[in-house]
Structures are given as C-alpha cells and as structure tokens.
Design brief:
It is found in: Cell membrane. It is a multi-pass membrane protein. GO terms for molecular function: trace-amine receptor activity. With 334 residues, the protein is mostly helical. The protein is 70% helix and 1% strand. It has a two-stranded antiparallel sheet with strand order 1-2. Helix 1 runs antiparallel to helix 2 and helix 1 packs parallel to helix 9.
Length: 334
C-alpha cells in the first residue's frame, strides 16, 4: 500500500470530530512546525509554478526557440508546472488528514504518477536528443525533427497516462475502500505493480540516461580535443565547425546538469519507496526526501536561468511586457 496519510496518529484531536468512532486522528505537530512547513510548501509551489510558467511562455512564444530540444524542455516544464500545483495538496496533509473526498484522493494519485512518469520520460528524451546531436551530428537534423519530437513527447504523456490507469485500476471501482478511517487517503498497489513501477519509472530510465550521457561526454570530449589540437592549421570554415561543436558540448553540459540534479533529487525518494514508504512517513528523513523530490521541479528553470542566455533575455521581454507588442514572437533573443 502507498499512503499519503498514516493510519497511526498520536494526538487526540480528530480529523472529523462529528465521526468520533470513525475519524482518523491528527498528527501531533507543534504550531511552529505547521507554520514552517506551510511556508516552505507555499514558497516552493509559487517558485515552481512561476519559473516554469516563464519557460512555457518563452519557448511557446518566441519562434527562435522552436527547436526539438526546446520542445522537450517545454514538455518538462509543463510537468514541473503541474507538480507546483500538486504541492498545494500537501498543505492539507500537514496535520495528517485528507479533507477531500475519496474520488479526489484517487485523482490526486493519478495526476501525481502521470506527471512524475512524464518527467522521467522527458529526461530520457533529452538524453536521446543530446546523444544524437553529439554522436551523430551529420544526421541530427534528419533524425531529430520537430514532427518526430512532437510524436515522441505525445507518446511519453500517453504512455504515462496508460501506465497509471493500469497500475491503479483496482482503485477506480470503489474509491476509498482501502481507507481504515475517515480522513485517510490510501491507494492500493499490488506487489507486481510496485515492481513494475520500480523498473518502469526508475531503474530502466535512469540506466538509459546514465549510459547515454557517459557516451555523450566521452564522444564530445574526444571531438573537441581533436579539433582544438589542430586549431592553428584549420581554415575559417573549419573554425566555425569548432564553434558549433563547442556549442553542442556546452548544451550537453547544461542538460547534463539538469539530469544530474534530477537524479540527485529523485533517487532518495525511490530508495525510500524501496525500503517501505509507510514505515518512514512520520520521520524527518522522509519529509526531507519528499521536499527534495518536489524541489527538483523548481530547480530546472533556475539552471536554465544561470546557463541559458535566451531564457534570461526572454524573461526581460516578459517582465517588461514587450512580449505583448506585435511581432515580438520574431524577436532575436539568442
């Protein structure tokens, strides 16, 4: 079982006082803890939603950014943007009670798993894109087109939705039937589904990402080193090729930082899931792991802001409202 609300409570205060014998009990938290956790969740939620919204607007509006790589980043921003809203649900769980109905409980889990799975899928697509760009640059424009990128992104979201429908199918018939008391949100996941979830959303994607990026950096480093050793003898045309290769290497490094941050933030969460989330849900380490999991969604736009000049330029256009001017979509922001 996966639980968002623990079944063992320590405080006498009930989630639903009108149901004395049926209600779950609230968590024993001090007022300071409640205020602190509420502030942190609100802060992360606002930052995540705001920054990813800037990424979505930037890539969607400016035509110069309509590339296959940025299209995947746009899909990733959409999933992170959704995570920012899902964080608000955690505000209800500060006292350990689920105040919405059982249908909303199932819907929350569906959105959570779909968005998480889509994020992992987008990371795999980013890795594949960089792999082709670095390891087969001559055929990159032929193999990676906007149309193919759209198809892959669509399949990523469709597969994520299909996956969660199959994994949580037993919870659709009668939402809330696995709850032991009122104020609890329990989703039943069988052992087979848990093993499949581990492989589909963690082991296989992470293995693919790591293998591709190791290959990318080895090839990119070898290419750049080989061309720089002959930089004094090459022509101006070849020099331009070196610049292109350097830009590809820079892009690979930036997206590599995104992937590394992704792994650092998500690996602890899946490790806790492996051990057993129910047993660790009330501990401080579990709270840290969950916060780290959500923090990854606001970390990606920060990485773009530090490394991508186009993102900083597009933010200036958006904040100064120049984006509302006619023809702003054709502005040179690169």
């Amino acid at each position: 079982h996966r639980r968002t609300v623990p079944s063992v409570m320590e405080e006498d205060e009930l989630c639903f006082p009108q149901f004395t014998n049926l209600s779950c009990r609230k968590l024993n938290r001090s007022q300071f803890e409640k205020v602190l956790v509420s502030f942190m969740l609100c802060f992360i939620s606002v930052i995540t939603v705001s920054l990813n919204l800037l990424v979505i607007i930037s890539i969607s509006h400016f035509r110069q950014l309509h590339t296959s790589t940025n299209l995947v980043l746009l899909s990733l921003a959409v999933s992170d943007f959704s995570v920012g809203f899902l964080i608000l649900f955690q505000l209800m769980l500060i006292d350990g009670c689920w105040y919405l109905n059982d249908t909303m409980c199932v819907l929350y889990y569906i959105l959570d798993v779909v968005v998480t799975s889509a994020s992992v899928g987008n990371m795999v697509l980013v890795s594949i894109d960089r792999y082709v760009a670095i390891c087969d640059p001559l055929h990159y424009s032929l193999k990676v087109t906007l149309k193919r990128a759209r198809v892959c992104i669509s399949l990523c979201w469709i597969c994520s939705l299909s996956y969660v429908i199959i994994a949580l199918r037993t919870n659709f018939k009668q939402p809330g039937r696995f709850n032991s008391c009122f104020g609890e949100c329990v989703i039943n996941v069988g052992f087979t589904e848990q093993v499949a979830d581990l492989f589909v959303t963690f082991i296989i994607p992470v293995t693919v990402i790591i293998v591709l990026y190791v290959r990318v950096f080895l090839v990119a480093a070898a290419q750049v080193q080989a061309m720089r050793s002959h930089i004094a003898a090459v022509t101006h045309q070849h020099s331009r090729k070196i610049i292109v290769k350097d830009s590809e290497m820079k892009a690979a490094k930036i997206l590599g930082v995104v992937v590394v941050a992704f792994l650092i933030c998500l690996c602890p969460y899946f490790c806790v899931t492996l051990v057993g989330q129910d047993t660790l849900l009330n501990t401080l380490s579990s709270a840290f792991v969950i916060c780290l999991f959500y923090f990854n969604s606001c970390l990606n736009p920060l990485i773009y802001a530090f490394f991508y000049p186009w993102f900083r330029n597009s933010i200036k256009y958006i904040i100064s409202l120049q984006i509302l001017k006619p023809g702003s979509c054709d502005a040179n922001i690169l």
